[in-house]
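Pipeline run #58 for the internal structure catalog. This entry was flagged by the ingest filter as a single-chain record with no existing model, so it goes straight to prediction. Upstream metadata was stripped on purpose; only the residue string is passed forward. Reviewer on rotation: M.T. Logging verbosity set to normal.
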Amino acid sequence: MPKTSREETEELDQKVKRVKCDSEDNGGETLLSGFQTSSVLSDSAREKIIFIHGKLDDQKAVVILEKTPIREDTLTDLFTNSTLKLEMTNDIYSTYWLQAPPHLNQIKTTVVCPATEKHVKKYQRQESFLVEESGADYESITLPYIQKQSFSVQWVYNILEKKAEAERITYEDPDPEVGFVLLPDFKWDQKQVNDLYLIAIVHKRNIKSLRDLTSEHIPLLQNIFQRGKETILKQYNHPASKLKVYLHYQPSYYHLHVHFTKLGYEAPGCGVERAHLLADVIQNLQSDPKYYKTRTLYFPLRADDGLLGQFKEAGRL
């Protein structure tokens, strides 16, 4: 992604395939050998990721290539089995190009195929605008837009019903009122905790976002907060004091979910203009049962976002 503000996916349900490029999994052939590049949608030198639009088997596709982090447990192998080519030396400083062995030089690859125009726009570099949304704005502008668009969350229901990704679920509380599933986000390869990233998805299906939360949902939020932290400590030996637990607004898909990331990891959408700490959300609801029904909220929208157009038409931007 640059990882875009609406990154996580209202439509990446069954259209997203993880591609394994090693010969053991695909007999030495690569799914991408016939990929024809049309354009680079966006890229980030800092995040070492690029989004490419093109065609795969005559179908529109988006391919995401991302360099994986260097892990501590691979350093011995990396130093022992790599080759170095000198680029420059000056006094005590030298720079080299290091050619790592193939198994340490993999690129995480995501393929979206067939890709719709929404997918292309989602990954395309665009300007963003900060929107000011009052409680009244939500009722008159945002909610009608959400209802009219009917964004699909079938992929979320597939997870909750164990029709997909069941093997990835780290923890589940099946209670219909306060229950949820916890599973690793696809942005985390689970090989190190420096970029730890898990998502808690609630079982209740009538909570779209922060705006729907009232004091009656405090037990649900507290359960996610407590059980999520306990599970991450048990499974990954990562304490709560090193976690950031938050919700997005606007969310990238309209089914309530909570993000658990390592403190210090700059995950997409973790900035103050979009992330709301779960601890703050709980306290706000304890102070005012309808806090998020009336509170003015701020969030970024991309230039091509239909909701931004609705705010412009209403004279709110």
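catalog note: DSSP finds nine helices and 15 strands in the chain.
catalog note: The CA atoms of residues 273 and 299 lie 5 Å apart.
status: ready for reviewer M.T.
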